[in-house]
Amino acid sequence: MLATLGQGFWRGAILPLLLLTFLVCLFPLASDYVLFHPDERHYVDAGLEMLDSGDYLSPRRADGGLRLKKPVIPYWFVTAGFHAVGVSVLGSRIVFLLAGAALIALSWWTAWIAFESRKAALFAAVAAMCHPALLISAPRSIPDICLALSILISTAGFVGILKQQRVSLGWLLLAYGGGALAVLSKGLPAAAFVGYASLFVLIRTPQLVRRNWAAFLTAGIMCAAVSASWFVLMAQMHQEELVQQFTRDQVGHGRFARSHWQTLIQFPMCLGMLAVTLSPWLIPAARGLRSRSRQFRSILRQPHVQLLLGWSLLFCVLASFINHVTMRYLLPVVPALAIVCGGLLSRCDSRIIRTSLRWVLLCALPCLAVGAALAVLGASGRSPVLITGVLAACAVPVLWRLSSRFSSTGQGVATSVVWHAAVLLGTLGISPFVLPDFGDRVIARLHEVNADPAQPVVLIGDPAHATRIRLSSRNETKVIRFKHPEEAAVAEPQILVLEEGALPISELATHRLAEVPCGFHPLSTNEVVTAAVEGKLPRLLDEHRRHYVLAVPKDEIARTAHSDSQVEGDEIVR
User: Fold this and answer.
1) pLDDT for 218 beyond 90
2) Which of 160, 338, 347, 383 has the fewest CB atoms within 10 Å around its CB?
């Protein structure tokens, strides 16, 4: 009786355990700018402007200009995070991280609908959870996760219709409501999915569509109306800006591949990246195909599986036409392929899955050991990292031996947990070398001289750095950004943050200067590894830091001489 209850509890706790692992392990990556994507500034700036103006429909840049290149939902994600946890790095990213967890849960549910198998649901969730595209996108405020989640909502609706051969209000709401959300997340890629899925259902199940044509037509019209709603509003308010910006971003000349050869190369590259990143789940499925080929063929003949595979192929074709392909661009098809992998693995012999995933786990365990070593290095900065690495490496055979006791589903859960633990430890390991963030450093410097936080700061440099200063000041400091030094009126004393060497020192005679670290100059792998083994990595990184220069008017410091800031010569003491 107790064994039965324990088994039931474990089955019910697997999905919450996976979601908790995902959120806990990626939380440090989302809560600080350990890794920062340059595109994040567009959505953070727009979110801050929405908070200031109260206009939640028209996204704007930091200078107040309209930014209508992408639809509105990613900007709402940022703004919702600011309202939930405050203006901060975490606030700008928390909703995207939660959307990543929702994508894992929805992959589980959609696989359950498609295959009516707990095993299929588990492996679909694990495959999606471990995919690099999700790990890259979820802890950052970029729209890829919004698009992928919305398309998956729509996918669940179409899968439900095809699986049950029945049209209900719930399935139609998911199919076309999710499609509308996807269009409002990133535009044309989502419209391609809704059009493809609708056409697939029409061709594959014509009798079903014929019997429910009015329901399909109504749902399609509602989807088009909701999808177009924001665009219609923007056209009424900012017609020329909308046409110029959105059209240029979606179908502009610079958006497409430069030659036919690039397109031909990118298509197999997309397929190859998906095959490699999903190989831990495809390999046991391929091995099982040899012994149960009839069962696998029956799965591949199912209409909802063909829908998922067809969408994945179509997306790779479309992606091959854009100017460049990166891993995160493939996220919209990752859940679809993860669901197919889950269905195939549910028909595999458990022994085949266990054997294959044990080898995957063997590859993950050294990554965990490296993450542990990095964490110790980040905490101590000395040679104990070598000892920790040796001890962790010695633990690998022990964990390998213990893994033989896991069931096939236990192997999947263990693999995902180990990979995420490696990400967590790696994040904790590198955090001391990149934090505090550049924006935090600038604000701390300004506080040292007791400068008025409401006084504008002029930044000459990367626009993303202006965003980070605003975020670190909780949007209290206004940052005026110029690309070139000659654009700024530097003759008038003002607080400046500029790239090192951007202006001659003679032009800053009325300012006191201080360096602000900002990232690192290029380093070779050999240099980093050698310094880490010798316990000299912190010193190496200090020697290769890039710097900005903070220039504060001398009269500003004179007015605040009563503060606790220490000033020595022409340099603010750190």
Assistant:
1) yes
2) 383
